[in-house]
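So, could you explain this one?
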Amino acid sequence: MSAIQRRKRRPNGGHRKDTPDVKIMKSMDSFARSISTIDYQLTQKCSICARPNSSMGSLRPLMKVLEISCHGIPWLIGTIGLLLSVHKPEHLEILMNLLIALIGDLIIIAVLKMLVQRERPPLNKSDMFATVSVDNYSFPSGHCSRAIMLAYFFSERVNIEAPILGLIVLWALVVSLSRLLLGRHYFSDVMFGMILGALEFKLLSYYWLSKENCMFVLEPFFAHFHL
């Protein structure tokens, strides 16, 4: 009997059954593709301000204002400027820790984007404010992480009135939503960015610098200003 005839006589037609490990890998691959498809579809449906001719394209100017309002550069410049002008130790404590949080967020986002290197959604229009090379990548959303981190920061560490705090939280949520509406990010980029922002604040709280430590760190640099 030839080899071909022997294969034909096998009950399963000569095909080997998948091992349990192979079945698990195939199931995980199928699940990942399903999640990716849902992510893409949600992003497409939400990108209603991505282009001037989109269904809500008239709102693009407002979305761009929100984009700039949470950009890292204005926040860094503003924080450093206030550090140079305030005099009270409790204010220095807040501003120093805010500066650390902003710099830490930029570093974490840059590292993750370079590691993942996920391209931005197809509908994204390349007109972002003050970008660098790493901003070509989508995952995770730096605006979302920064907005949520700032919302936690002001709600937990700054003594402000409830109405103003409510506006800050609303601003953070609207900024996060605007990243989807503009088509800047995939849905998963936004969600992960928001979670990351909360984790960043928890990490900052754990390593929070006291007034004494802030004064010690700042004195060599700003003593001729106000310390």
Summary: The mean pLDDT is 84. The two ends are 96 Å apart (CA to CA). Residues 73 and 130 are 8 Å apart (CA to CA).
